[in-house]
Amino acid sequence: MKCPYCNDDMMLGIICGGKDSVKWIPKEKDKGAILSSFVKGITILEWMDSKVEGHYCEKCKKIIIDVPKQL
CA 58, CA 49: separation in Å to the nearest integer? Predict the structure, then answer.
């Protein structure tokens, strides 16, 4: 995959789940690590042993993933 920012090749990898879910939430709704689990967001990973593929650009320091769930 080509990076949409710099057009260099991206490396395929995975993001692994941990104890809690991994999700994206709007910056203005960030309540800290403990309370953020109660804020609605886009769930990237449900829980441990789950994983999602992502492409990483070493030059831009960006990861691009397909979002499995919406708000």
Answer: 26
Q: What is the pLDDT of residue 2?
A: 97
Q: What are phi and psi of 37, to 5 degrees?
A: -65, -20
For tokens 């708000």, name the residue.
71
Q: What pLDDT, in 10s, does the model give residues 10-40?
A: 999 877 766 777 777 777 776 665 566 666 7
Please, which residues have CB within 8 angstroms of residue 53's CB and are 6 or more apart in sequence? 12, 13, 14, 65, 66
Distance CA 51, CA 44 (A): 9
**Closest C-alpha among 57, 41, 49 to residue 16:** 49
- Give the C-alpha separation, 57 to 71, whole Å: 26
